[in-house]
Amino acid sequence: MPSVYIKTYGCQMNERDSEQVAATFLAGGYSLAESEAGADVVLINTCSVREKAELKALGKMGMLCSQSGERPWVVFGFMGCMAQSKARELFDAVPRLDVVTGTHCYHRVFQLCDGLLKQRLASVSHPILRRGAQLCEVEDLPDAHSRIRDHLPLRTSCSAYVSIMQGCEMRCSYCIVPFTRGAERSRSAADILDEVRRLVDSGVKEVTLLGQIVNRYGREEPVIDGRGGFVRLLEAVHEVTGLERIRFTSPHPIGFREDLVRAFSYLPKLCSHIHFPMQSGSDRILQLMRRPYRQQKYVELCEAMRAARPDLAITTDIIVGFPGETEEDYLLTKAAVEHIKFDNAFIFQYSPRRGTPAADMPGQVCLREKEARNHDLLDTVNRIAIARNMALVGTRQEILVDGPSKTNSSRLQGRTSQNKPVIIERGAARVGELLPITIRECTGFTLYGEA
Ligand code: SAH
Ligand code: SF4
Ligand code: F3S
Question: Are the folds of 144-390 and 396-450 the same?
Fold first, then answer.
C-alpha cells in the first residue's frame, strides 16, 4: 500500500485543508505515514503570511529532496498559500519538486500525485523525474468542498475544524492572504450543517468554524429578528445533538454586531474563548494597516463580550514594527495590552510581503527595533497571561479530554472552555469525554487538574 506524508505550516485553514487532502488519499487506498521517511508521496502545505514561514517550508522541502536519492520514485509536492502565490517559481527554487497545487485545487492533489507515482513505479528505470512536473493553480471546481466531503470522516480526534467560508477581501495593507486565498465566499448553511452532523456521528464533540473574517459569514443574508447570517448559523450548529462545544476563528471588529455579542449570553455550547486580532493599539497605525476600526471600538467590543460572558478568555494577534510605527505608537499597543489583559497574544514582527502596499511604505522599522519591541511586549503579555492562569487555581472547570499529554504520555490532556490546556492523571477519564475538574496547580502556561 503506498503512503503519503503531509507536513502542515500556517493557520487552521491549512490544517483543515491538509485533513481533507489526507482523506482523499485514504479513499484512494493510501495509508498515512507518521513521518516523511518511507512515504511515497510527501506534501508540504505552506503558509505565506510571513517570510519566515516560507523559508521554513522551502528549507524543509530542500532537505527532504536532497535525501531522496535511494527512493527516486517519491513524489514531492507543495500545496497551500506559498504554492498559490509563488507557483512556477517553486520549481526553480527546488529542482527535484514534482507537484505544486494552489489553494483552489485540493480536490486534484491526489489525482496528480497518484498519477505521477504510478507512472514512475511502472517504469523500472525511473525516467527523468521532472518530466512529470505538475502545476495546478486555477480554480477549476468552485465547490471543491462538497466533493471532498464525500471522503470524510477521517477524524480520530474529538474536535474538528469546519471551514464555513473561503478567501478574504479586506486588503489589510500588510497581508498576503487576499492574494493566496482569493475572493470571499460563504458556504451554504445546509452544507456546513451536514458536515457538522457527519463529524458528530464520527465522534466529534467540538467544532471550530473557520473563516478569515468569520463573522462576515452570510453577510448578504437578511437580518431576521435582529440576528444576522453568522449568528443564525451559530444557532443552527448549536442545535446539532451530540455536539458539545462550538468555537469560531478569526472574528474581526468589522461587522461585529450586537447580535454576536449577545450570542455569548444565550448559547451555552459557544465556548468562553475568542481569538480576536487587535493588530495595534495605535489608531494611526491601524489606519495605515487599513484596519477599519479604532482602538476604542476594539476595547468596547471586548468589554461588551465580557459583560455577556464574564469568564470569556480573549487572545489576540499583534504586529510590531509596522512601517511608520514610532516608539509612541508602540507604547499605545503596550498600554492596550495592559488595559485589556489578554489571556494570551501572538506577537509578530512585521514582515514585508511582496505585492502588498505596506512593503513599499516609508518608515520601515529596522530588525533590531522590531526585535526589541517584540521582546518587550512578550514580557508584558506573558506576565498578564500567567497571572490570569494563576487565578484559575482552585476553580472548577470542565475539560474536553483531547488525548495523551504531549510531555508525559502517561497523563491526559484536555482543554477548558477558555481553551486552556490542562493536564490530568489518566484515572478513569476517556478521550473525547467532557470532564468536570478542579484546577490544582499552575506553572505559568500549564494547568494541572484533578477529576
Ligand atoms: N484574518 C485574520 C488574520 C489572518 S493572518 C484577521 O484579519 O484577523 C494571521 C495573523 O498574521 C494576523 O492577525 C497578523 O497579526 C499576522 N500577519 C499577517 N500578515 C503579516 C505580516 N506581513 N507581517 C507580520 N505579521 C502578519
Ligand atoms: Fe489578512 Fe486583513 Fe484579510 Fe485578515 S482581514 S486575512 S489580516 S487581509
Ligand atoms: Fe498562512 Fe495561508 Fe493561513 S498565508 S496564515 S496558511 S491563509
Answer: no
Q: Is 47 in the pocket of ligand 2 (CB under 6 A)?
A: no
Contact 235, 390 (CB under 8 A): no
Residue bearing the CA closest to ligand 2, atom 2: 172
pTM as predicted: 0.92
Cα–Cα distance measured from residue 395 to residue 310, given in angstroms and rounded to the nearest whole number: 14
Ligand 3 in contact with 181 (CB < 6 A)?
yes
Per-residue pLDDT, averaged over 420-438, amounts to 92
What does the pLDDT read at residue 148?
41
pLDDT band of 68, cuts 50, 70, 90: confident
Is 396-450 CATH 2.40.50.140? yes
Q: What is the number of alpha carbons within 13 Å of residue 177 lying toward its C-beta? A: 19
Q: What ranges do the domains of the chain cover?
A: 3-136, 144-390, 396-450
Closest atom of ligand 3 to CA, residue 9: 6
Q: Which among 363, 425, 418, 428 is positioned nearest to 391, based on CA atoms?
A: 418
Superfamily (CATH H level) for 144-390: tm_1862 like domain (3.80.30.20)
Give tens-digit pLDDT for 250-304. 999 998 999 999 999 999 999 999 999 999 999 999 999 999 999 999 999 999 9
Look at residue 81 and give its three-state secondary structure.
helix
**177 close to ligand 2 (CB < 6 Angstrom):** yes
Rounded Cα–Cα distance for residues 445 and 110 (Å): 39
* Ligand 2 nearest-atom number relative to CA 250: 4
H-state helical runs in 128-250: 144-149, 177-181, 189-201, 229-238
CA of 316 to the centre of ligand 2 (A): 14
Task: Classify domain 3-136 at the CATH superfamily level.
Answer: Methylthiotransferase, N-terminal domain (3.40.50.12160)
Q: How many CA atoms lie less than 13 Å away from 101 in the CB half-sphere? A: 23
The Å distance, Cα 177 to ligand 3 centre, comes to 6
Rounded Cα–Cα distance for residues 266 and 268 (Å): 6
Residue pLDDT, tens place only, 181-234: 989 999 999 999 999 999 999 999 999 999 999 999 999 999 999 999 999 999
Beta strands 245-249 and 206-210, pairing class: parallel
Residue 351 in contact with ligand 1 by CB distance below 6 A:
yes
Instruction: Tell me the C-alpha distance between 48 and 51, whole Å.
Output: 7
Distance 398 CA to ligand 2 centre (A): 33
